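Summary for the funding panel

The consortium committed to producing paired sequence-structure records for every protein in the target list. Below we show the first two records in order, beginning with the earlier of the two.
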Amino acid sequence: MKRRFFLAAAAPALLSACGAKHVWDSDEAVRAARFVSSEPPSITLFTVIGIPRGEGGHSALMINGSQRVIFDPAGSWNHPYIPERNDVLYGITDNFKNFYIDYHARETYWVAEDTVFVSREVADLAIRRAEAYGPVNQSFCAVATGRVLSGVPGFEASPTGFSPNKLRSWFLTLPGVRSKRHMDGDPANNHNVLLRQKDGTIFGYNR
């Protein structure tokens, strides 16, 4: 696979345990990290899918509104430059988006990135719903993702069960959805990803 380097002014990425862990970084940290993307407002569903059986491993949302955040329910990725409030990650620049994808894409999983463009008002409502949801228990990622979406105009029919694959199958029926597939050859334990992030350089994917 042809790959290119991305540079990031980044410190080590740290792993955290899955589960309903209360994290509440300061107002100052959240304000300082705020990132406003030049891309149109959108809601993106990330689905981590097993290789070779195709089982759903994780669901998360990237929401691009008045700022860009990731709602990573019961997720295991964090970074000292990324403030978090109960599974909502702030400051998602392009490099940190790539960090997030690269962390999940490995020999045993690939990452589906499915995006629907929405109005700024709809995107900001989705952000507020993610912020209000609270910390998520392990294995409830698809449940939480579906519940956040179900209160957003245009996404009311979102399933709220435990299957990331069923959630993705429904999301793909939405009008205008755009999809990308991210694959990688990193070892299943992600150790190489963490080392690359530590020295400020990561391998990215052709977009």
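The next record, for a separate protein in the list, is shown here:
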Amino acid sequence: MSTTIPGPPGSPGGLVTFGPHANCTLDLCPIEYSVYKYRPSVPANAIFVALFGVSIVGHVILGIRWRQWNFMALMIVGCLVEIGGYAGRLILYNNPFSFGGFMDQIVLITTGPVFYTAGIYITLSKTINYLAPEVSRIKPELLYWIFIPVDIICLILQAAGGAISVVSSGSSSTGVDIAMAGLGLQVGGLFFFSALFVDYLIRYVRKKPESPLTTRMRIFFGFLGAAILLIFTHHHG
């Protein structure tokens, strides 16, 4: 939806504040007319770009060392998507009325975690196979055969929703509804996965008292749980 405000004295017609045809700038329009009504922080968003960039390097090194090609690929793609999203935030600092910058950050930042959750599903599946697959209520392989397709559907819905919003210039709520459906499905899938994750840990501790989790494994599961929690807070942020 393109929003128009009266232009300055002597200007032809009005100024478009939002949409693919937005022509407002900070020189012509007050910041209050922009989508967020403020300029995103350059230091904060630059830090996120840098952190995701460093993460890519780390995942490349560890992925090659341990030959975890699928996990490495998912993490790299996720980081690249997030970098693109925060780059969109930096664009909004220079021009808070940039429709391209707005769509970049809203679509990419919300879809990036799809790749992280896929990596988490694969990681837990391999961990269960390593520890005690017989303790799990479902076959470990089913974790990614069930949840990764759900992630793919979420990605398609969010991408389609973003595309519809761009094509309609925001005039239709259909794109937003589709994207939110994808986001909701992703959160629901992650919640169900988290329940299975906790259930497995409880069952393992009860059924394998002779093989307690090592300190290293406890730390691993702690960070895995923290990653899931951060993805939840990312979606609700």
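Regarding this second record: DSSP finds six helices and two strands in the chain. Residues 3-236 form one domain.
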